Amino acid sequence: MISQGIWCKTIPQSCLLAAALMAGSPLVADAKPYKGAEIFTHDSHLYGKYVVRMRTAKGSGVISNFFSWKEGSELPGMFWEEIDVEVFGKNNGQSLQSNIISGMGTRTTSEQVHNHGFSFGDAYHTFTLEWTPGYVRWLVDGQVIRTTSGGQARQLVSPAQFRFNIWPPNNPGWVGSWSSAILPVHMFVNWVEYYSWNGGGFNSSPTWRDDFNSFDTSRWGKADWTFSENLADFAPNNAVTRDGYLVLAITREGQEGYNGTPPTDAGTSSSGGGTSTAGGGSCPDIKTAGQSGNFNTAGAYCFRTQNAVNGWGVSNFDGRTISVTVNGMGTAITSIGAPLPPKGASDYYHFSSSAGSFAWASVYWW
Q1: Residues 186-212: pLDDT tens digits?
Q2: Do 215 and 40 touch, CB atoms closer than 8 A?
Q3: Predicted confidence (pLDDT) per residue in 254-276, tens digit
Q4: Structural domain 13-252, CATH architecture
Q5: How many helices (H) and strands (E) does the chain have?
Q6: Domains 13-252 and 283-365 share a fold
Q7: CATH number of the structural domain 283-365
Q8: Where are the domains of the chain?
Q9: DSSP string, 30-42
Q10: Catalytic residue set
Q11: Residues 133, 202: contact at Cβ < 8 Å?
Q12: Which of 143, 243, 310, 357 is 20 to 30 A away from residue 80, measured at CA?
């Protein structure tokens, strides 16, 4: 993550010294008064697609993240390789930052902030990170928000871990002013899927999926370290599973853990199932030829159809964008009325619309 200083899986004195030098400020030896959380996969993968269903923390000064990370990137003489999805808690949690970090010595970053008309802290949303040899793509609720082709994307050539974390950066210009009065705050993850890259595309079925019915120690480790810009230490007790959800918390020291009930996710299917929505509910399974998807909402929505679609269009779409994929995967069509890719009889087209100006909108096809 940009501005993160340095990551260490343990905290030997050499690592602390390197962190202080890289961050440009001394590290305090005493335990910090706040505790965040991070988990990481033991295994690393080269390329692939990660799909995450999560609800993030709201509050100025905090971020809820997932990212790919080449182990050892922080060490002197190592080439840094990282891809980020960082959801801001500030401004009611309505924006996120996509980023690639690469390079050795002076690192290159490519942060972009994406603003949305809803709060990621009020409902669960589906976030997708696609990493291939030629491009990196970020999607929210099936909608492509950014694609980086070539350049930095081609510098990511090493297997990488996958990580979740929540922390309060000591950087108010980036994440907003910090106040401990908001504590505790939490991010909730319903499930995560990883799809392998087969050289020509992503495999249609996930290589692995975690529904967090328990904490799988064979897949995940818990962080117990920190870095200079983090106002908190990562505490293992602030990363727990509860009622089929992963809960990551920021708390005061001495108040670690989570004893509450995670908010329920109304849409719990995988990206391959096509039932997750931008609003957190389930997509209508529309299968009758000649019908349209009409929705009485100004908010974002999605739906799917197994019909053969020869042509399509929209109504009352002022202010909206749309993304259409086959089975919720692959390259998205984002131009209204553009030809759709072919699909099999058992496949479906997955339409995902952002929020718009009208209280209702329609997608129609023939």
Answers
A1: 999 999 999 999 999 998 888 999 999
A2: no
A3: 999 999 999 988 754 444 333 33
A4: Sandwich (2.60)
A5: 2, 25
A6: yes
A7: 2.60.120
A8: 13-252, 283-365
A9: SPPSEEEEEEEES
A10: 82, 86
A11: no
A12: 143
